């Protein structure tokens, strides 16, 4: 079922930054992922969609081993992070190496997960100073730059609880970016936000994508997927059911479940249509 | 009716007792914290045999009356293990192990109450287990642990009175000694109670303050 030719699915033909092969994941008896192959090339933006329980968040968490797959292999930037075959054989990678390779990915969480006992600035500096042992001053400059880029220059000395959800999420993006990752992973980054705050986080992500960052994004915002994704991957029952350019997957889906999934989105968009048309009509007058 | 001279005449003995009580409170809390940190972290590890070992330790010392532990270390240890322990060492070992088991539980509960998302975030930026604990988890857990730690430490100071049972000359031992020749136990034990109040109430207030300033950050 899964499609294992990554370059065929996207027009960006760079070198692969991330390569997943046969990722299986079980929680107890429950099979969550059933052998997923996915390759992401440099600068590519991949959006994972699927109904809840389809395994998209689990898959994302497998990429940096927050979930340890039952079997499969993960290669990031030509380095093997994980390798275990179905028969239990495979390369044992020492914890220190895992931590080092893992820091080549940056992750942004649904619940932000900022460190509440640190200021925004310290949150962003934490990784470079503690993990990469960068000199404090250098890390500070870089962190200030990133926070500025996220439009948070006035908030660097604030603690997370003093910031809005959207601001917290942008700090979280800056924190992940501070490690200079090869690939950024976003786990439903706007799902916990008030609707009026979604835009600012998406704007930051769009800018990140335009700057050439490789990104894997789990989201329910299909409009956003349509706008920035190079490839949309639809997961169903722990498998890649369909993937391709957003125009193809979102507008002309083939897989029956994807049809229903996208159909529901179109239905809710239809509800907005009168409102949008009224606004357009006003503009014309 | 209430004869204050019993206390004023023997203030020197009470002072010596108080110093002994404070000394044991401080050293057993310090040692207990080390034990608690070690056993707590053992209980939080992912290696099953270690976790069980930690649990056995905690349940053992938590569920045996402290008095029995003290008497056992002092009297039975020399007999069964052939090691002679002085009453000071027996008191130190018994009290430290006892309070250590409670501290271990407080640490475990404190760490487990920290949002798992914090571990995820720290792991995701490449932190090792030690870095995660030191920089992210323990600082947050510690704030939640201040009230129960203070509570347990206050209990620990009061528990040192059991040292008198193995003839360590603490405050209570001196009190019973004084009442044995003055025949005025009421005055003497009241004085002991007042001394504990005077020392512990400010400490309680301090812990409340710490708790508040901790949650502000």
UniProtKB/TrEMBL annotation, chain A:
Matching PROSITE patterns: ABC_TRANSPORTER_1, ABC_TRANSPORTER_2
Any one GO molecular-function label of the UniProt entry: ATP hydrolysis activity
Domain ABC transporter residues, every copy: 18-262
UniProt keyword annotations, A-Z: ATP-binding, Cell membrane, Membrane, Nucleotide-binding, Transport
Keyword Cell membrane: yes
Subcellular location: Cell membrane
Membrane topology: Peripheral membrane protein
GO cellular component: plasma membrane
Cited PANTHER family: AMINO ACID IMPORT ATP-BINDING PROTEIN, L-CYSTINE IMPORT ATP-BINDING PROTEIN TCYN
Similarity remark: Belongs to the ABC transporter superfamily.
Protein name as it appears in the record: ATP-binding protein
From TrEMBL, chain B:
GO BP terms: amino acid transport
Family to which the UniProt record says this protein belongs: Belongs to the binding-protein-dependent transport system permease family. HisMQ subfamily.
Keyword Transferase: no
InterPro entries, per the entry: AA_ABC_transptr_permease_3TM, ArtM/GltK/GlnP/TcyL/YhdX-like, MetI-like, MetI-like_sf
Gene3D superfamilies, per the entry: MetI-like
Phylogenetic classification of the source organism: Bacteria, Pseudomonadati, Pseudomonadota, Alphaproteobacteria, Hyphomicrobiales
PANTHER family linked to this entry: GLUTAMINE TRANSPORT SYSTEM PERMEASE PROTEIN GLNP, MEMBRANE COMPONENT OF AMINO ACID ABC TRANSPORTER
Summary of the function given for this chain in its UniProt record: Part of the binding-protein-dependent transport system for glutamine; probably responsible for the translocation of the substrate across the membrane.
Every ABC transmembrane type-1 domain range: 18-207
Subcellular location, principal: membrane
Protein name as catalogued: ABC transporter permease
Keyword hit for Transmembrane helix: yes
Mode of membrane association: Multi-pass membrane protein
SUPFAM superfamilies: MetI-like
NCBIfam families on file: HEQRo_perm_3TM
Pfam families the record matches: BPD_transp_1 (PF00528)
Signal sequence region: none
Gene Ontology CC annotations of this record: ATP-binding cassette (ABC) transporter complex
The entry's keywords: Amino-acid transport, Cell membrane, Membrane, Transmembrane, Transmembrane helix, Transport
Subcellular location: Cell inner membrane; Cell membrane
GO molecular function, one term: transmembrane transporter activity
TM stretches of this protein: 20-42, 63-83, 188-207
């Amino acid at each position: 079922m899964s499609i294992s030719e990554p370059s065929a699915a996207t027009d960006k033909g760079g070198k692969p930054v991330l390569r997943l092969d046969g990722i299986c994941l079980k929680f107890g008896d429950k099979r969550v992922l059933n052998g997923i192959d996915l390759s992401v090339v440099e600068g590519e933006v991949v959006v994972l969609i699927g109904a809840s329980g389809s395994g998209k968040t689990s898959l994302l968490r497998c990429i940096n081993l927050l979930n340890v797959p039952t079997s499969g292999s993960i290669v990031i930037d030509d380095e093997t992070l994980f390798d275990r075959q179905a028969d239990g054989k495979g390369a044992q990678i020492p914890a220190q190496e895992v931590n080092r390779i893992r820091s080549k990915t940056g992750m942004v969480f649904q619940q932000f997960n900022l460190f509440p006992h640190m200021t925004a600035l310290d949150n962003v500096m934490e990784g470079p100073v503690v993990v990469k042992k960068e000199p404090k001053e250098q890390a500070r400059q870089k962190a200030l730059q990133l926070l500025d880029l996220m439009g948070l220059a006035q908030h660097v000395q604030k603690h997370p609880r003093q910031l809005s959800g959207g601001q917290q999420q942008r700090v979280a993006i800056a924190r992940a970016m501070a490690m200079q990752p090869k690939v950024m992973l976003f786990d439903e980054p706007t799902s916990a936000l008030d609707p009026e705050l979604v835009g600012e986080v998406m704007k930051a992500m769009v800018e990140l994508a335009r700057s050439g960052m490789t990104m894997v994004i789990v989201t329910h915002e299909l409009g956003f997927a349509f706008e920035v994704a190079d490839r949309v991957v639809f997961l169903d029952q722990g498998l890649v059911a369909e993937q391709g350019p957003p125009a193809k997957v979102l507008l002309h889906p083939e897989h029956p479940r994807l049809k229903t999934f996208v159909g529901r989105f179109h239905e809710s968009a239809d509800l907005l249509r009168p409102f949008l048309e009224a606004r357009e009509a006003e503009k014309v007058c | 009716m209430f004869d204050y001279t019993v206390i004023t005449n023997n203030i020197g003995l009470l002072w010596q007792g108080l110093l002994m009580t404070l000394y044991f409170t401080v050293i057993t809390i310090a040692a207990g914290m080390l034990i608690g940190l070690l056993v707590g972290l053992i209980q939080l590890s992912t290696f099953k045999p270690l976790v069980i070992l930690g649990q056995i330790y905690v349940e053992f010392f938590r569920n045996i009356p402290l008095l029995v532990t003290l008497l056992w270390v002092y009297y039975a240890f020399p007999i069964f293990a052939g090691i002679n322990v002085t009453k000071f060492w027996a008191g130190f070992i018994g009290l430290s192990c006892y309070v250590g088991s409670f501290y271990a539980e407080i640490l475990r509960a404190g760490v487990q109450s920290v949002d798992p998302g914090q571990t995820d975030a720290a792991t995701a930026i490449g932190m090792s287990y030690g870095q995660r604990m030191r920089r992210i988890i323990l600082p947050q857990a510690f704030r939640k642990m201040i009230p129960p730690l203070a509570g347990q430490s206050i209990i620990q100071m009061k528990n040192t009175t059991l040292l008198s049972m193995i003839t360590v000359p603490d405050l209570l031992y001196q009190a019973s000694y004084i009442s044995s020749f003055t025949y005025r136990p009421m005055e003497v034990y009241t004085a002991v109670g007042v001394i504990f109040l005077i020392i512990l109430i400010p400490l309680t207030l301090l812990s409340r303050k710490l708790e508040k300033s901790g949650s502000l950050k």
